[in-house]
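User: Show me a protein chain along with its predicted structure.
Assistant: Here is one chain, sequence first, then structure tokens.
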Amino acid sequence: MTPFDRPPIGMNLARTAKLVAQAFDAALVEAGGTLPVWVTLLSVKSRELANQRELAGMIGIRGATLTHHLNAMETQGLLMRRRDPENRRVHQVELTQAGEALFLKLRTAALAFDKRLRKGLSDDRLAEFAHVLAALRANVEG
């Protein structure tokens, strides 16, 4: 058996990741959000206050892209930005009441999707899968 008798693991992983990401985004859209909105709300919610630079780093996007998302979310009344009183160049980001409500809706959708994704998989298999994913990341990084 040669390595090409079956699809390379990278191709299989990329296809699976794309399919899962599309399904997750569809679940979030059905709940009234999107993946960028969910990740932003989750990042803000995970800290009482976070500045825009930290948020961009946690989400894994550039500052300008985050500014675009934050502008839209602020217009929708989901969050508020204000200047840090100790450093006027830094904006702090907080969820509004509407942002909190959407966070709860999207959290419910994310948890339901996670349950769907884990269906039929034991905790042992999921732990092994997490270990394999970590090893794949390490192989790519190192």
